[in-house]
Design goal:
The complex is a heterotrimer of chains A (312), B (309) and C (337).
Chain A lengths: L8 H17 L1 H18 L1 H4 L37 H37 L1 H15 L3 H12 L3 H29 L1 H8 L4 H37 L11 H9 L7 H28 L1 H12 L8
Helix pairs in contact in A: 2-4, 2-11, 4-5, 4-7, 4-9, 4-11, 5-7, 6-7, 7-9, 8-9, 9-10, 9-11, 10-11, 11-12
Chain B lengths: L1 H29 L2 H5 L6 H11 L5 H13 L13 H36 L4 H15 L2 H15 L11 H31 L2 H8 L4 H40 L4 H10 L3 H29 L10
Helix pairs in contact in B: 1-4, 1-12, 5-6, 5-8, 5-10, 5-12, 6-8, 7-8, 7-10, 8-10, 9-10, 10-11, 10-12, 11-12
Chain C lengths: L7 E12 L2 E13 L4 E5 L6 H7 L9 E9 L2 E2 L3 H7 L4 E4 L3 H4 L6 H12 L4 H14 L5 H4 L9 H12 L6 E5 L7 H18 L2 E6 L2 H7 L2 E6 L2 E7 H6 L4 H8 L48 E2 L5 E2 L23
Helix pairs in contact in C: 4-5, 4-7, 5-7, 7-8
Classes of the chains: A mainly alpha (312), B mainly alpha (309), C alpha/beta (337).
Chain lengths: 312, 309, 337
Amino acid sequence: MSSARPTGNRDRSRRAAGWAIRILRDPAALFGILVLLLLVAAALFASTIAPLDPNKQDLGARLLPPFYAEGGSSEHVLGTDQLGRDVFSRIIHGTRISLTIPLVSVTLAGIFGTAVGLLSGYSGGRADTVIMRIVDTLFSFPGLLLALTILAVVGPSFWTLAIVLSLRIWMVFARLTRGLVLSAREAEYVEAAELVGASPTRIMMRHIAPNLTAPLLTLAVLESAHVILSEAALSFLGLGIQPPQTSWGLDVAIGRQYVFSAPWLIIFPGIAIAVAVLGINLLASWLRVAADPEESAKRFAAAADAPTGWSE
Amino acid sequence: MGRYLLKRLSQAVLVVISVMVVVFVVTRLIGDPVAVMLPLEATEENRAILEAQLGLDRPILVQLGHYIVDAVQLDLGDSLWQRRPAIDIVLERLPPTIVLVVAGFVLGVLLGVVIGVVSSLRPGGWVDRAAVTLGLLGVSLPQFWIGLMFIVFFSVGLGWFPTSGSGGIEFLVLPAVVLALPIVGRIALVTRSSMIDEMNAQHVKDAVARGVSRTRIVLVHALKGAGIATLTIAGWELIGALAGGAVVVETVYAWPGIGFTAMQAIERHDIILVQAVVFVVAIMVVTINIIVDITYAMLDPRVKLDRAR
Amino acid sequence: MSRREHLLEVRNLEVVYPARGGTVQAVRDVSFTVDEGESTGIVGESGSGKSTIARAALGLVELPGRIVGGEVLWRGRSLRNKKYARQVRGPEISVVSQDPMASMSPILTIGTQMTEVMVRHLDLGKKEAVVRAGDLLEKVGIPDPGRRLGQYPFEFSGGMQQRVVIAIALSCDPKMLIADEPTTALDVTTQAQILDLISSLRRDLGLSLLLITHDLGVVAGACDLLNVLYAGEIVESGTADELFYRPHHPYTAALLGSTPRLDVKAERLTAIEGQPPDLRQVVAGCSFAPRCPYATGRCESSPTLGTSSAGRACACWHPLDSHQGNLTGSEGRLGHA
């Protein structure tokens, strides 16, 4: 468990610097951070970075191959689709959806799930039992299939998509939060604080909340990767993002009809999804280790003399 | 055991019913099933006929009651698309899905466990690094995209496998592999980390000190313990493959299972058929959960089913 | 060779571990022997390197730990040879460790854990192994062995678990038992029973024993010879009686002063002030000097462990004489018996 004491400003900046150094030392984490920064930059400045309007059709320049292939040009580096739209520009604009959907879904799910978990863990007793039973039941729901059904009935849109995806993951936050609250409450310093009569709010804010931040943040990063994949899959199936909005999954769906003649239409948006998800997953697994002193020590021992672990 | 099963079965029924209630609420209250089902040019009269046919003119709670009572009797209504009982269609299309999911799951778990065990033997070594990278790729690559890339590469490029459809075993290879990939990734990562924990556990160190052979250490002492930890994840993977992966993979490869059927039904606005698919999948999911719990108790002597939960 | 061959000989052993901010010198120039039928104790605080010595005596120093010097010999052959160490573990050397519950696989039956080594090392069939396992359980005082063999560790009480662990350790009829804090996790009455069991098994089977503990009370009755370990070094060694009644090294004396005893009437128990040194730094001079009430300027250079005629050794510039708490004199390098 990390220390629950608030730290001064100087301490905080020193700690931030320490984290930065640790990220720079780990190539996987560095890759993850770079991917994330790149995505954020692409999303924020999409209109500036993208050479062309992602929805601008040019029927004279249909299904042009990427620059490296015969007939390709630097004007459309990654080629064009069946309507002559620039694939590269569409991918750049696609980052907006790929980032905002997880941002919205994970935030919604995180806030709701954490609240439910706090309530469950802190109240205990019957309320806890009932809440966790509901959570267990929801875990047994046929995830994607149910999401498809709901989207098919309600009609796909940005917000229904974001909400449906958050409905699939909030239970994970609830379960984690409850577990953390329960173990923090058992910690001696919390018991001591309760004994000396600290108010529940004070205990929650000063002693329990600090123990929640790191694991919940890690989970949020990890779930973002899941949400990106789910959004892409739903958009691919035609029940996610709808034109004229652009999404990588949607682009793959469009390219599917030209899979034999114009494979670049699916290759590049797919690579974009894979790189984004991989980067975020790497970041999440690094965070998990870095936020946990015990894991961190293990990894240090491993790094100090790899190959390590058990050996005779 | 008998009492435990009874308890679990009643919980399972509760889960299935709550899935159905959610679907019901979504379709009847939030959505407008009639509008979804009817073509755009439908008249008010068409609408009234369909509403009566679906019983939508009755009070909502009566509808829900009928709906659940019918579902329990496996009467899920007639498919609007094929004009015959939806449950019949789902049961017809179920075997191909089971074949696909079982093939992908078995392949995924076997490969995942092997990779996880091998990489745990020398953590930090190059085999381990390669395995971890592979595992991360497995969980990061979108399945529908890998499916299409396999078609481009193996079917179109090399001509090894048919692009889509069903028939002999050659039709099964690509979809099963694609379905297996994320399973391989997650199972490998989980098996690896629980194997490393086991190998560092005191009882394993002491078993080495007492002269137990390395093979037995890895395959019996460590793997049995790690297997218990992996089992839960394997259960989730099976559920994920059935309720998620299969829909995507079947759609990409036009594999005639329930996932593909669900997508066809959605395209044709056949909500009744989609509901039937969700119903059958929900039953399978709760069944898998019960099987996982029983297997758990069989593997871990410390778990007693009657006391659990 | 006229010299009797030692069963276990540890010679100038040096073990290091990499750690944050340097390398930990866990074991520094440690030498001792265990002969056939002999019982040797290693006593030290936690972190003194005693468990590392136990692992080294099994040929099992886990990475990232490394043996950087010295030798560990079993019957004259190096246990740093992995193949030899594998042959020796089980049929020649076996181990009993601190927490019996953690020491056994929780998901394999007692029977499986006893017979698996027998089948491998004793060339027994499954059935013969089961019979032998039952006999062993009876020998360590577990009633109804036939039924017990099919049970799992969690179905035994703590004391019974340690008996089972001892039985597992004895499966292949080893020559030496390494007991690493065998009673620390047990309650006081059970501790005595387990120690009695180990002593009587030792007599009956002619076992050698390497007993590792932080608790002088444990070694008191169980060991013939004692090595006192401080900060990775042996600071004093000799027979158990001599060390108990006439400690030469101030650390040994301090340890005795902090251990409750029934045989000597002590006014009060005294804690040892201060902390053991940080082993990531090279310790110059006597490592106990900072905590030692007798330390002088001379202690800034390292005292060496020499052997006197009676097989007794002490690494101290100012060894205590037989009267507890008195200085023998500033020139005394070795404590002479």
